[in-house]
User: Fold these one by one.
Assistant:
Number 1:
Amino acid sequence: MYFDDEDRLELQILAGGNIVEHAPVFSPDGRFMFVRCLTNVQVYATSTGELTRILDDATAPLISLELDLKQPELLIGCTSTGELVRWNWRAGVLKKTVALKLGSGDTTVLTCHLMNLYKGGDTACAFVTTKRKSGDQVNWFVVNTCTGEKIDVNCGLKLKVRTPLVDVGKGEFKYIVLAQGFYIYFVNYVTWKFCRYKSAHKQTVTCVRMSPCEKVAAIGDSNGKIFVWRDFEQKKTMTSTLFHWHSLEVTSLAFSPSGASIYSGGHETVLVKWSITTPENRTYLPRMSNVIRHIVVSNDNETVLVCTEDNAIQLITGSSCQIKSTVQHFTYETKNKTGLGKFPLGLRLNPRTNTLVLNGRSGHLQFYSAYTKSMLYNLRVVDTNFRSEEENHIIYNTRITRAAFNINWMATGEVYNDMESFAEVRLKFWHYNEKLQSYILNTEIDLPHEHGFKDIIFSNQFQVDNLRCATAGEDNVIKVWGLTDSENIYKRGSMWCCLAQTSYRNLPIGSLCFSQDGSLLAVGYGNILALYDARNPRLPLQTLSCPPGLDGVISKAQLRLAQNPLNGARKELTQQRQQLWALLKTLLNSNDEKLVNQAKDLIVGPPAKATLMNQPENGSKESVFRYIMKMPELGLHQKLQLLRRFGVECSVSHAHRNRLMEHLQQRALIPQATRLRLRKLDARLHRLHTRHRYKAKQRLSHLTRRRQNFEDLVPQDVMNLFSVLKIDESSKPRKEDAKNKSKLDESSKGTPKVKRIPAKAAPLQGLAQISQVQFGAGDQAHLVAVCTESRVLIWNLLTLRLQAGLKLSVRQLAFDPLTNLMAVITKNDELHVFQPNVPLPLYQRSNLPKTYGLAWLPRRQPKQSSINVDWQAQSTLLMLTHSQEIAYLAPPGQSPSDDAPAPISFAQSAATENLLKHATFGIHVTKQQQASTESLERSGPLIVGRGEHSAVNAFVNLSAHTMPAMSLICSEFVKSLVTPADSTLRHLSKSGEDAPLTNGGSVNGNGLLHGHSDDVLENEELAEEGEATGSTLDTRKTLLEQNEKLEDLLPEGELDQQTLDHRLKTITSLRTKLKL
């Protein structure tokens, strides 16, 4: 597909920067903290958590950030490319950039730590570790941060391949502690002597930390143990103390400034404070938001900073261990072992505040404002506790898989499925509370569907009356929910209940969508689009299916053979293709059964013979056979294929072969009686009590699953296994001796002949599965877009015909009701933007990152340009990428938050003109307004149509598929076009009242001035003008007197606060007393 190379839009990041990848740094007084986010340094106030400054002068990701010991206002950072950046963080000014001279070639800097060592410069020297490429040994250097030159050091320390964990002591005891795997190194950077140790039981070291005022080091390992090392210069005098509470690995350690306490954190989401002298005395801060990643303590011991893996920084008081503030950016979903998607909800838009909603912490929804680039809040939806990860176990938590939003309501679907027991499914409806400014749970339904949800959608985003909600489940059932009176005698109100449910041929549901007015419900069942009446969705009104071939699935076989032999093709394959092509030509004109069987043998054919390895001798074949058969990770089919590669042939005896074929024929397919029995049992489950229904349903589902697995296993694995063992009809019989053949013939006389199952090839025809359904809006409300595996089909509901089709394999779709634009992301990571009525692409882009979801964000101030010129004039397209970032396409330097708020307009323009006349600079404004009114009077206002007849607009804008019969609306429509006599008189009087605004002349509908009018109206207008001028003169005199009094009160210098307050009170009292 062709893409325009001259694309002026760039992919920019709106939110999602990782602020917890590296440990933050406190200022010397603890009032500010410095956070690294890729190439930026963000400065926050610790008291309020507010962002105060951003330092963005680095050209590559920062891997370290520290304050100089002698110059605390100097902030030094090091990038991964070996560039030192120095800022004066108080002034926000870049001081200097220095390139490290680490040798020739591409070198990646792994770590960089400042030392309490000054040699030939005003800043401290740094301990740097580098690596050229993966697999190489890690090198270390001592670098002068002023010049970037290496400093020669006489030390025999050699590091291994892994990225080291490094910490540097900057107090009285100048030591460097390093850890690689289970090796621990202590280096004295004054004498440059080092010693090496191994961790207890050779456990992997996960974090290291040096004490700021003692010769003490704390080391945590993967078993959750913390060892405090003392006197580690010599192995004879070295001692270690065990601190053990964590059950999983220790992720972070931190000493208090006095060295009397240690803070530790891990996967248990608990912050533990230890006493260095008595390990038994410890305090806890449980239920942190997520796994603790970094812990930093301020120099005054007043604030403890904790970074959690959900991209949050929590500031905790050091004395009472209470959370005082939180810095929360875009919330990250933590890694787990389940293999499930991180964002099953995708990217949603809350129509109430135009905020983005997506999955956040486990069991939470996060609401993010793209206008202010701030996290509003995390809403806890799941009531169960969060289960932390365990070693050698897969832990499942309840996940929010679907959600839908209305201006007053929110519906969420949560599923807990541990792949062993029956899935727990809950549907919750939340109502927005104005006082609390949050959502409150209104209704909770247990097990609305089986195994989970496919989709949840409201009938209208802004409608409150007659609101409906439709849910589709994995059980191929659609349920429609509505508001009814609550049955609770203790709390009256409204609640949600099921109004109707439906299904269609037990076909799987791909997607569902309501029309713009909520009257129709479109559901995609397999390859069929069904249309329901939203008020009574018992039976579909219409079912639409695409003709064969147009939905992306061909109904005929296509065979393409190269005319010329390909380079490297084997001769036997070329001959087989030529024979097949000749047979197919003759098959088109004849129905000979011999030719059909011959073509079938050529199509199915024997299994392809792979190239044999170096065949071992006959004596070593047995050892090869035993070794391969002992491999537990391989299946039987894989073992047999591997044996054939080594030239070891396997076969099955004739008697066992017949018994196996009989058994397979009897149980290859489920008999009809068994299917009917399973259906009857499923129907009887609804008669059981709720207490016994779940257990019976679980047993029945296990039985159905086992039968289905066996049915799927036969054509996939068993038939392939038979072809390897040469049991099927497509394989050639093995050559046997005449004696053995006669014995087999005699033994086979008594056994009946068994009909063999043929090896079936892949099917040539299938059904297209609908994945997305979307209605149009406004004048395109009669169009429905349907997405299959390889097509986008546009249906016209007025003609019930297929209007257009696009050859796109859509993975995600987003619709903008303001502009009728549809944005789709294909499986090849391509973006296409089009309208359903004219499916020609307005914008195309390739090489996009992998995305989880799309959403259109309306602009606060739309642009006055056509969508053909700027397709993002009304709304901005946002994408949730796989790197957990929200991205958008815009020209360089522009973001969705740059839109100015909508201007405020007042209806009474005459009153504002009178007020502006007496203002200080109001005369200049009134002159401009008079000039604009004079230009309007000369040309006359352009009036198109009749403003009173809103029925015409309502009739034209009415959706075509929801329009009632013409016999019902014809009489009312004609009556609305007739103008009564009273309205004409009111229109004439209104034109007379507006005469002073047009210099005494009244303007008719065509913009022409009337030359004469009634004398009575002129007298009334003159009287009104006299009263108005008298009142304006009195008002002007009063305002001038008060203005002179205020000017006398003005001092020559600056005004104090009391004088300003007095003036403000005087002005407000005048504005309330005078009635202009």
Number 2:
Amino acid sequence: MFAIPQVLSLLLGFMRDEDAPLWKGYFYATLMFLLSCLQSLFNHQYMYTCFTVGMRVKTAVMGLVYRKSLVINSAARRTCTVGEIVNLVSADTQKLMDFVVYFNAVWLAPIEIALCLFFLWQHLGPSALAGIATVILIFPLNGIIAKKRSKLQEIQMKFMDGRIRLMNEILNGIKILKFYAWEKAFLEQVLGHREKELKALKKSQILYSISIASFNSSSFLIAFSMFGVYVMLDDRNVLDAQKVFVSMALINILKTPLSQLPFAISTTMQAVVSLRRLGKYLCSEELKTDNVSKAPLTSDGEDVAIENGTFSWSAEGPPCLKRINVHVPRGSLVAVVGHVGSGKSSLLSAMLGETEKRNGRVAVKGSVAYVPQQAWIQNATVQDNIIFGREKLKSWYNRVLEACALMPDLDILPAGDATEIGEKGLNLSGGQKQRVSLARAVYRKADVYLLDDPLSAVDAHVGQHIFDKVIGPKGVLRDKTRILVTHGMSFLPQADHILVLVDGEITESGSYQELLSRHGAFADFIHTFANTERKESAIQRAGSRRSNARLSMVDFMPFSRDLSQEQLIGGDTTNTNLQNMEPVSETDQEQVPEDLGKLTEVDKARTGRVRLAMYKKYFKTIGLAIIIPIVFLYAFQQGASLAYNYWLSMWADDPVINGTQIDTDLKLTVFGALGFVQGIAIFGTTVAISICGIIASRHLHMDLLNNVLRSPMSFFERTPSGNLLNRFAKEIDAIDCMVPDGLKMMLSYVFKLMEVCIIVLMATPFAAVIILPLAFLYAFVQSFYVATSCQLRRLEAVSRSPIYTHFNETVQGASVIRAFGEQSRFILQANERVDFNQTSYFPRFVATRWLAVNLEFVGNGVVLAAAILSVMGRSTLSPGIVGLAVSHSLQVTGILSWIVRSWTDVENNIVSVERVSEYAETAKEASWSIEGSSLPPAWPQSGTLEFQDYGLQYRKGLELALKGITLQIHERERVGIVGRTGAGKSSLALGIFRILEAAKGKIFIDGVNIADIGLHDLRSRITIIPQDPVLFSGSLRMNLDPFDTYTDEEVWRSLELAHLKNFVSNLPDKLNHECSEGGENLSLGQRQLVCLARALLRKTKILVLDEATAAVDLETDTLIQSTIRTQFEDCTVLTIAHRLNTIMDYTRVIVMDRGHISEMDSPSNLIAQRGQFYRMCREAGLV
């Protein structure tokens, strides 16, 4: 590297010396070329090695974080959300990789700087010290700026984390947002985070512009100070071509380490921050392996024993279970009962070792299978979910499906058990998820079964079937040890042992008969409910039930319905218009059955170069008014630079009169002025571009957010949330920082290149002959590379999504994975996904190296041309011009590789613009509110509903889910809707809320056709209590009333009616109690009550109740029912009932069957008619 200026000095010496032989000139020219080539080769070999090492570090850390997420305990899990953990894998590991690549610059750069200064000293003597002084001044300035920026970056990352966390929840609870018309409130929140994030970014960018400007003018400043001091010191000091241009070449070399150093330092700083974050996560508490002592099976004795156990969720927190003594003998069935929030699930967690053990001992013998309360389903086929890593035994597998009542469901699914399930089990109903989760446990053939309320989400008769076939004394698991948490009273008589939990303590235990004879709390409890649920009688009628069990699921459902709609309205059990899911219908007979069961759209990789339209879109977002001045500023800046360089060469060619040059002061002033003008211009351009970038990214984010929130429900079922989050995190980040930075670099280097070409042509016009072919070669290499690189980049991005999706799943299902002991398999899966991602990452940077080497040869060609041509024309050329030409051509290699690098950066990151605007073309919902619509503010006043020949379908081309429903509901009527799973009960509710638009017919509310009003106008005036309770992280108050429309008194009043007042007033923060992500710090029953409180607060004239009493114990259930009876008595109430006893006193009951209304009358009349309703009541033991 340092040999090149020495050779240049010799060459210029040769130019001055009239009688040196020509071969010397040619020799110097070729030598320069060869040295440059060698430098290129060494440099890139080094970069390649660095990258490989960096990549290995990155994969290793990713693996570490993943493995850690499988052993982290629940207290630590609560401190960091899924979003933050995913961020560690995506952002922080990348920072570490960058660090490995650029770290050597930290110590290499100072050495290079020292060498440069040493050579300068040789040329210019002590005035080189002035140069050193300049360097010393520039450095601390940049150091301070870098420190400030890393602080701003942390602030920005904090807001970004917050924004992504919010987005994650919005996507998980999108259904609720739609039902309640809350999109606007959440939109505001996200934009609030975004504005703060952009504010930090703007500050950081302006500081960055200062440092860029000081850098780009650094070579000028150093030259100015050195030459100035050199000329001032002594009149005898003459600047000739040799001194000027060799110094300039050295100063240009000096710029590389100077520019690398801050970059390396900031990378190091970022890496340190990331290391700290990773360290904090990797050091967070793990589950203690001694929480549970595992032992192999013994022939007799107890399988599960807890002695004097006290457990809590976190080391500091209050204990959730106290003084627990449980002994479960081999092969017995133990039922655990208790109110909502009494610690039933915690007891199972304690047996699994998920909770913090304060004292006592827990022993479990043999293998364990666990069914969580909220089923955890992977994004894989049904079969994979059930087999869960074991080999498939055909007969046993079928027996399990049969026992779990899954056979009929598989008949409905388009590809049977090969149907892919969306993430979190999107396209299964709640009951189906629960049964798949149960089947996974049964398939295991474990020794101990921990079942956390697996029968809650299924219809009563299916629940009975499962209890008989699986859990009960005659079930598949009869010889195993089973611990069952349940709310179903009908199963208790068949349990060997019952534990009653109250507030984390076991108050009573014993068999059913013993507990009844004790006349304790349990006995009262049973007596209260024995009259409401006389299911025991139903058990005796085994004969009649035998026949129903086969019909339990929807055998008679028309095949073209996608899936059972058991729990359609609930949170994520969304309806099923999933792409390509329809069975082959008459229209597309030739459809390949291969993708029948596919559901989620994979993130697609676009092919080819980025379309021009994307650039147009990006620049249009910014606006022409700003773009044109930017281009002018650039031209101006380069013009100034060209002028001061040319001025130098004139100065160098000035004749020396008796040892001095004339007018040195004037020359110095002009030189200085030109340089400073250039510096200011640079600052202007960089600031302008940064601000443009921020304007553009603000618009693009805004559009993306609006597009996503205005998409219909079907869109969210098709699109995995990982893809959407990727857009909001990675792609927006790229648009924020990468695109403007890339543009800055690219523009400044393109103009620089023009300047170099102009100078070389001024010196030797003949060089055009050589520069043109080189330009063509360059263009070819670049276009070849940019296309490849873009494609590789896209492939890499697409293979990145599965890593995060898998990660997300693992973190959410960690307890299940641990219970089944499947950690190693999941770790292998994660590693495979990371490896697959690396296979497209590796070629990408190898391609970059290939490009760089090729380009540098092109650049070296320019050097050779300039040198040889100047040797040929030495008779006519002055040394000044030659020096100018050759020292500039030496920069060409650097400039070229930077242009391509920044160009590909821009191309690669413009892909983000493409991916972010992808969702602008998807179908949208109807508008939220219609301007100038004449809805009276109090609408609906009476709450009458009228359906006229109403039909509904889930997707074009499918059979109607509701066929020609005509029905009138009067004000203050209470109507129960019943029917087998998939009869269209929930579809009615979806139609009223226009989650699905009508295929034919109309719905009128108070005489207003709901299709003619805005969605928010409609959805905010009617209320639904959905099946799955979804809470968002934020205060409890925000969960009840995100728009702050109600007073605190009203909020407390609604909590009191929802029986939550005591619970909330005992919380330290009361209404401001922070709910964690997804409301995980409240029990399922409490979340259900919060949803009830929401409805009470809105108090609209029409209430749709998708019977959500599955997760609530019977006592709370009666409370809810009585609250609804009293509080909503002047409203119209529609209940989609799963339990018939709740609707026996309603004014009317509608029996749905396959999308038709088959019977409709008051309950007593329907029973008298002895039709379908009567049969259903008989099954439930109500008649």
Number 3:
Amino acid sequence: MDDDQQPPPAPPEAPDAEKMDQIRRRRLEKLSGPSTPKITKPTEASAGVSSSPSPSAPITAETVEPAVKTKLNITKAPSTHIALSSKASSEPSDGGVGPTASPQPNPSKKQAPASVGESIEAYEHTTLGSIFRITLDPNRTVDSSNHKLIYLRNLRQELEDEQAPIMLTKERLDSAILEAASAIPHNKGVLDYLIPCWKRVMRALKSLRGYASGKDVILKEAKRLCMSNCVFAVEMPEFFGREPNSALDTLTSYLLLEPTEERGISPDFLAEMEARIEEDESIKPMLRKAVVGLSQQLAMMTMNDNYKPYIHALKALCQSSKFVAAIAEDPLFQMATSAPRIEMDTILGPFFRISPLQAEVTKEYFASPKTMDKGKIRTSQEALRLTLQTHQNDLLEITNLFVRTGPISRNKILDWFAYIVNSNHKRRALRSNPAELSSDGFLMNVTVILDGLCGPFLDTTFSKVGKIDVEYLRRNPRVDIKDETKLNADESASTEYYKTVASGTSNFISEVFFLTLAAHHYGSEATNTMLKSLDREIKYMTDKVKEMEAERPKFANSPHQLAVLEGNLKKYNDILEKYMSFKFAAEGVLFDKVMQAKSLSFMRVVTVWLLRIATQSDYTPDKTVNLPLSAQQPDAFRCLPEYVLEDIVGNFNFIFRFIPDVMLSAVGDEIIALCITFLTNSEYIKNPYLKAKLVSLLFHGTWPVYHRTKGVLGDSLVGTKFANDHLLHALMKFYIEVESTGAHTQFYDKFNIRYEIFQVIKCIWTNTVYQERLTQESKTNTEFFLRFVNLLLNDATYVLDEALTKFPKIHDLQAELRPPNTLTPQERAAREEELATAEGQAQSYMQLTNETVSMMKLFTKTLSASFTMPEIVERVAAMVDYTLDTLVGPKSLNLKVDDPKKYQFDPRTLLSEFIEIYLNLGVSENFIEAVAGDGRSYKPENFDRATRILNRHSLRSAEDMAAWEKLKGRFKVAKELEDQNEEDLGDIPDEYLDPIMATLMKDPVVLPLSKIVIDRSTIRSHLLSDPHDPFNRSPLKIEDVVDATELKAEIVAWRAEMMQKAKQARDDDTMDTAEG
């Protein structure tokens, strides 16, 4: 023993004879084997030591002598590898030697092969002594390799009492091992002694060559007894005179060592355990105790720690199907009291918990994130990514072993995964409490491993999609979807549908498919959402820190207040750095292209499967969906959880946005089919924001990626027949639908959605097929088209007005803040905040304005006649006249701001685009009359100012300028005629006036319920935005109005009469003048 090591505690008092006999019988029951003779009489025993029988001196239990209290002679064996000695006692040997135990023995001490004349008894004595490093010679303390030997005082005494040869035999080996193991200090495990013995006996067995002449029998018995005593050391340490010690009485620490180390668990040791597991009831508890020990220790570790030995140990154990089954049946396999305890308390939880997203890891890899170099951030992310990939591959291997071992372990691990997803439903709540949920890192690992389990059926031909049974959800599924929002069914309809239990059993593909869907929803998709929220939090905290730092000078003369400020500042900085570190780590995990490629493959299968359920067909990307879908929606589709579609669009949108190169070789036409199908048949999906995400998916798919200027999807959207036939109508339809989403933010939400729709239309507009489709739409589906144009005009009018009215305010605030000024610090801060708000709004509205005007340019060029229909032409004219007045009229001086490009505001370009709209629509006489009749904004001088600006800056071609001058003349003539007509008609009778527009009605109609008479163009224009009677708010369609035929005839006659009278009066005036 080392000098500084505390001496082991004294052996306990020896039990009485009856107690000793009970222990002996229990051991013999455990150790019973073909080479163990029947026991008839026990011998003397010292503390914790039992003897084996002697064949020459059979004894009975009745003749047991009182136990003698003796002191064991304990010697400490060094930690070096063991070389078997040729001698085990002081008695002369016949020259036989045991096998070499050390993998790298000293050549000078290497034993010679046994001679032909060596007796089996001598071999037995020498070999057993070398293997177990024991001796019966009190004067011999080390072997020839200088390994310390344990002197077996009690066994020698027993042999002497029986007058038996003082030699080690396999019949006495049990007593020898018991006495030797009992001599191990109690601060060390018995396995510290027995496992090296096991390795030596296995090397001896493997070294046997040719005819064994009984040697194999000796070694096999030594092997059997060594393993049995290992089991006793773990399960019944009292057999060695020791109190139970959970830290020592387990295989855990030995499994963590390399198998080649002296105390490491070798594969043959595990193979022996597996061979005994059915017949020895102690093996399973020993195994489970070891695995639970691994799990509990790993639960206290992070990726910063040396966690890999734990993974390797579990992998080694799981190579045995019997071990896997035993582990799966352990009560702790799934025992946890809450979602956060799953990763701590269940057996596999700590293995899945290891992640770069653990707080200690993010802090270690991204220390001082505010000042961290971007290159170093990328390097750290890549390092963590590679480490995580290796870890997840190990987890997948372990999981596959559970799945493939048999139905029991397969069902247990599927139950465990289901327990995880079902316990984390609140992860998708608006305000979730992380303390009540599993961690991001844990759930990300679960998601990735389930993706891996799906691998065998994720082929690119979708050949196994048919095996995914939607009826799984009606067979008491593991995945709980009861509280989930359904695609298009309310709670009562869903409950009624799932109340009927489907016949049959679900296959493994269906089980793992729905588990993986849920894992994506609560795992990776929740983490994606968290990353977005984290960006907002970081921005808020950054602004807060800047604000507090700006306050420092105020407290320069107040040490106490300055100290409070510094304390708060440190707290905010700490939180900010924590958020930033976590963000960098999360990006490292989520931007893993290998992981996301597998996720994408899964989502492609989900897409094809979902289209099959909706269309009730065997759809694959090489086939076409027949649109529109059936008006009768399949119940199986309606009652699916909403997250089925949400997972698809969320995953694709994330990849499109952050790592689009993953999509280049992985995406097919199925994603375009999905978007177009459910935008065309939008009634299939209840949630308008989920439908909006389909638009976002198309929008992100048109972002330029490397050499693809139209993005990943752009070329397919432009060129595929399915898109050519249905995409434009689908986008226009949803443009109309988002006018009303039902949310309190619907007014502002629609602009963002429509902005994305504009971007997609701009991408595909190069194909003339879409221009032809738009023309066809305006002729065959006029009401639909007019609603679309009306909303486009509404948006254009609103965003233009909002954007252009912000610039005068920005102009004034910039002038007020421009030095020198007399503002106090508080006033200046208030003005700056007000300016920042106005600038942000102006930037947003100008972005929308530019896109809306761009759409109007495209559409008016293709469909000028459609934009000049009576129902909308006056609104179009009013919008363009008002904008022209703002851009070039007296108010234009207030539009001058510092750095207008900052707000995407280019007045000259905007003016040029509106001139183009004028030219596009100028072919219509209706438009000419509407512009001239715009009493609010039509001002001939505005047109002249526009001409000067266009010429000065060469904004339009000479051809366009000539057309513009001609158009101005036509406006002037039309205005003169308008004024003449107004003068000719004089006072219009009230019954002939439109009650809303106060103009002479041309085509009066009667509203069915309110009985109000109104011009058809007025009510039609109103119904484009609001399907209600404007006078009593009752529902109304244009088909419901009644023609006022008689009134129309009266108006026509009255107008003709008044025009004739006016003409006659002018003729009379002309004659009078001529005569005069």
